[in-house]
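Budget justification aside, the reviewers requested a transparent look at the raw inputs and outputs of the sequence design task funded under Objective 1. We therefore reproduce one unedited record. The lines immediately below are the structure tokens for a 262-residue chain.
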């Protein structure tokens, strides 16, 4: 995020503007303490997609338990529920100045009230289990975003680590059904960290704009998470696909600077 923030601040200062002159939304963030939200507001952030958990147990008490959770579904739904419950508890205190976004009009209501708009999301689809009925269980509780993959595959589709696997499925039938339901509910489908075939399948399946929340240019930094120029053009050419958000953190800053000077 550092590169984007630096460029945004420089552009703002050069045009004699302040950060409050336009909305700033973060497409991907994990910080979820009450003091984190207050710092967001103080820093000029209008709102963000908060990732409640991700498809690995980062806070596991031991390395062994972390490794055991890598390919498991055990405990992910409960950890997601705990994080969402915590978010609502923080939002219930008006001193924390946050609003959990459930519908589009909530965004403007939050901004008018001086609140941080928080969209509850998740980095990985393990919280959805193995059937689409869980989407309708999560939706009333405020979940409005799901990034289908993190570093490992799940039942929704292949992840970036399976890019060169000829047997990887791309988007599964479960993943296709999930997209259709999320489209109908107005939820955000996020394909960052998904395998190229999964992303392509998602674009062919969705009837609404989708998001690639944090990627970079692979011609600059050859990392699996990043997108080749052809993929970027393909995303831009898709009427149904949202624009990608590029983070220099995922690239190589010196290479980016060098490319800009050519």
């Amino acid at each position: 995020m550092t590169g984007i923030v630096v460029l945004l601040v420089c552009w703002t200062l050069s045009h004699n503007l302040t950060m409050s002159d336009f909305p700033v939304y973060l497409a991907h963030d994990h910080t979820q303490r009450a003091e984190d939200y207050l710092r967001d507001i103080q820093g000029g952030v209008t709102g963000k997609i908060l990732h409640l958990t991700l498809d690995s147990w980062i806070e596991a008490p031991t390395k062994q338990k972390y490794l055991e959770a890598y390919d498991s579904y055990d405990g992910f739904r409960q950890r997601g529920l705990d994080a969402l419950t915590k978010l609502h508890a923080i939002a219930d205190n008006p001193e924390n100045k946050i609003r959990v976004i459930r519908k589009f009009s909530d965004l403007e209501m939050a901004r008018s009230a001086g609140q941080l708009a928080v969209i509850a999301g998740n980095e990985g689809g393990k919280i959805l289990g193995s059937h689409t009925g869980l989407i309708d269980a999560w939706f009333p509780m405020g979940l409005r975003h799901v990034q289908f993959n993190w570093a490992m595959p799940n039942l929704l589709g292949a992840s970036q680590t399976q890019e060169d696997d000829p047997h990887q499925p791309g988007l599964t039938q479960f993943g296709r059904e999930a997209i259709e339901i999320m489209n109908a509910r107005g939820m955000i489908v996020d394909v960052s960290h998904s395998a190229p075939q999964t992303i392509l399948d998602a674009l062919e399946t969705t009837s609404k704009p989708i998001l690639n929340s944090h990627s970079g240019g692979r011609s600059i930094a050859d990392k699996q998470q990043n997108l080749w120029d052809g993929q970027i053009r393909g995303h831009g050419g898709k009427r149904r696909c949202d624009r990608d958000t590029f983070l220099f953190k995922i690239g190589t800053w010196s290479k980016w600077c060098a490319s800009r000077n050519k």
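Confidence is low (pLDDT under 50) at residues 1-9, 242-262. The longest strand covers residues 47-54. Computational costs for records of this kind are itemized in the attached budget.
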